[in-house]
């Protein structure tokens, strides 16, 4: 009798353990399912503007707390309703002011000199034609006074990233996950430019790391948008059109090999003798920018290890051997999904 009771208790214990194991397995599968849904929603490939709920129809904008889209502000509206507050930045082409429109902060850009008005107007044309989730939102413009109004992002450019993470308010965001997501946003912008409605556009204003970082803004919800579009020449392979980024000699280790003067040092630089190149110059720079964005937080070296192969491909000296931006973007997303899947269940639960 006692033996039967003992066997029964032992059998009951195994049944309980089996139930617990099945529940744990179900929990892990369920959390992974939620994680895949989360990643798919956040990092799904870009769709057309009309499928993006936060993108307004062409010629309209929506910022801050606005519920409806409004037409771009014209010269009269800017003069009447926009108030300058303070100067926040000066570049070769634009002076940027913090300004206010109907109680909302906006960025007001003005031409620095008539000598660079063509670059200024080119940037405006790009902002008008390329409005998407990858770009800063155009609020209005006035060509008569060479003025551009865009959404204001108080966290500034990616040059300020480390300073931002040092603020107590944002220290909790300083993780390899968030840093990799910023890199994904950055590559997403490059991919969008290389496959834009205007053709294959090249980020020419990118001869060093700081210059590249200054082109991108960090949004308050920790995404990346491109802000400076003054130098975006188009590659048209069908018609044999390649690009050259300026008429001066480019130097340094950051730029792609094909952007360097290919002749002997005793041969004086001449733009006429400088070969043209394509969008693969942007691909060459991706590993350096991503390495900076990843920083040195816990887990960043693991991310670098998983990105090693694709970054080696990006660093091929022959431009035609480098992958497309879309391929790099797909790899980045796959690495994020893989590493998130490998995280402990407790960390995944916190993420969700």
Automatic annotation (TrEMBL):
It comes from the Eukaryota. Its main location: endoplasmic reticulum. GO terms for molecular function: ATP binding; carbohydrate kinase activity; protein kinase activity. Keywords: ATP-binding, Endoplasmic reticulum, Kinase, Membrane, Nucleotide-binding, Signal-anchor, Transferase, Transmembrane, Transmembrane helix. It catalyses: 3-O-[beta-D-GalNAc-(1->3)-beta-D-GlcNAc-(1->4)-alpha-D-Man]-L-Thr-[protein] + ATP = 3-O-[beta-D-GalNAc-(1->3)-beta-D-GlcNAc-(1->4)-(O-6-P-alpha-D-Man)]-Thr-[protein] + ADP + H(+). One of its GO terms (cellular component) is endoplasmic reticulum membrane. It is a single-pass type II membrane protein. GO terms for biological process: protein O-linked glycosylation. Residues 82-352 form the Protein kinase domain. Protein O-mannose kinase that specifically mediates phosphorylation at the 6-position of an O-mannose of the trisaccharide (N-acetylgalactosamine (GalNAc)-beta-1,3-N-acetylglucosamine (GlcNAc)-beta-1,4-mannose) to generate phosphorylated O-mannosyl trisaccharide (N-acetylgalactosamine-beta-1,3-N-acetylglucosamine-beta-1,4-(phosphate-6-)mannose). Phosphorylated O-mannosyl trisaccharide is a carbohydrate structure present in alpha-dystroglycan (DAG1), which is required for binding laminin G-like domain-containing extracellular proteins with high affinity. This is Protein O-mannose kinase. It comes from Hymenochirus boettgeri.
């Amino acid at each position: 009798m006692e033996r039967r009771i003992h066997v029964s208790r032992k059998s009951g214990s195994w049944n309980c353990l089996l139930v617990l194991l099945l529940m744990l397995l179900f929990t892990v599968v369920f959390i992974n399912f939620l994680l895949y849904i989360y990643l798919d929603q956040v990092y799904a490939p870009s769709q057309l503007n009309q499928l993006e709920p936060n993108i307004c129809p062409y010629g309209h904008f929506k910022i801050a707390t606005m519920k409806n889209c409004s037409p771009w502000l014209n010269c009269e509206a800017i003069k009447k309703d926009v108030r300058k507050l303070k100067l926040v930045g000066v570049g070769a082409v634009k002076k940027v002011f913090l300004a206010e429109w109907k109680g909302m902060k906006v960025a007001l850009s003005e031409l620095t000199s008539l000598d660079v008005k063509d670059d200024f107007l080119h940037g405006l044309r790009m902002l008008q034609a390329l409005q998407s989730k990858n770009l800063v939102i155009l609020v209005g413009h006035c060509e008569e006074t060479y003025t551009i109004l865009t959404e204001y992002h108080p966290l500034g450019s990616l040059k300020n990233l480390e300073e931002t993470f040092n603020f107590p308010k944002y220290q909790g965001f300083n993780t390899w996950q968030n840093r990799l997501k910023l890199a994904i946003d950055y590559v997403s912008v490059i991919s969008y430019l290389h496959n834009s409605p205007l053709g294959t556009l090249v980020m020419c204003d990118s001869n060093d790391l700081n210059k590249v970082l200054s082109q991108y803004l960090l949004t308050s919800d920790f995404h990346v948008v491109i802000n400076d579009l003054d130098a975006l020449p188009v590659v048209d392979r069908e018609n044999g059109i390649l690009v050259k980024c300026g008429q001066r000699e480019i130097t340094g280790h950051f730029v792609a090999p094909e952007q360097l003067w290919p002749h002997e040092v005793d041969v004086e630089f001449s733009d006429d003798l400088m070969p043209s190149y394509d969008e693969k110059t942007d691909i060459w720079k991706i590993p350096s920018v991503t390495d900076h964005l990843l920083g040195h937080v816990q887990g960043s070296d693991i991310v670098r290890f998983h990105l090693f192969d694709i970054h080696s491909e990006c660093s091929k000296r022959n431009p035609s051997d480098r992958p497309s931006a879309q391929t790099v973007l797909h790899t980045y997303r796959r690495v994020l999904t893989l590493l998130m899947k490998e995280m402990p269940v407790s960390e995944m639960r916190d993420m969700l």
